[in-house]
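User: Sequence recovery, please. Input:
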């Protein structure tokens, strides 16, 4: 049976690294794996990336609608891969949209908009303090250190709050070494393997 696994967390939490490690581990076990991410590399994902890097100015609500549109296209691809027998590992999904969106928008509206998308089998939050995330990120963002720290701390709190609302949600301490984090992620995923 295929698994749909989502790795979530604030920027700099290690999602991309852990996606790669889990993909590699499952492939070594002989499983068919498709690793993907949101926003996607499609046209709508490109607009989102432009908005996130301040090349394009749009409202928070418009950005969330774009995320949902990108996800709508992405889900079709995910569902096709699952039907073909692939495990899916997704670097961000709708929980990220909600956690980041909650900083400026109503949680109920965000949850309702994303309720049409399939739930993952497993959601794993790589939880790290904002200070560690910012050290890992270096100078990737234009905001001041204090603005970024406050923002990422708020988003981290939102992820913790959301962990109580969704099923099959696991929290892993992402501040440790890549190997320790991967070990914990793989242990969680192993419990779901047939």
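Assistant: Recovered sequence (194 residues):
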């Amino acid at each position: 049976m295929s698994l749909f696994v989502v790795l979530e967390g604030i920027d700099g939490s290690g999602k991309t690294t852990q996606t790669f490690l889990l993909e590699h581990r499952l492939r070594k076990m002989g499983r068919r794996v498709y690793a993907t991410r949101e926003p996607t590399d499609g046209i709508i994902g490109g607009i989102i990336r432009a908005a996130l890097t301040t090349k394009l100015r749009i409202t928070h609500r418009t950005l969330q609608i774009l995320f949902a549109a990108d996800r709508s296209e992405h889900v079709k691809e995910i569902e096709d891969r699952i039907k073909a027998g692939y495990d899916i590992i997704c670097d961000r999904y709708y929980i990220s949209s909600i956690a980041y969106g909650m900083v400026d928008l109503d949680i109920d509206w965000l949850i309702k908009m994303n309720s049409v998308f399939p739930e993952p089998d497993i959601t794993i939050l790589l939880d790290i303090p904002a200070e560690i995330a910012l050290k890992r990120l270096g100078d990737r963002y234009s905001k001041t250190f204090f603005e970024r720290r406050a923002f990422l701390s708020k988003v981290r709190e939102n992820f913790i709050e959301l962990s109580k609302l969704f099923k099959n949600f696991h929290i892993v301490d992402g501040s440790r070494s890549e190997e320790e984090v991967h070990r914990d992620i793989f242990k969680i995923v192993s419990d779901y393997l047939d």
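The chain has eight helices and five strands.
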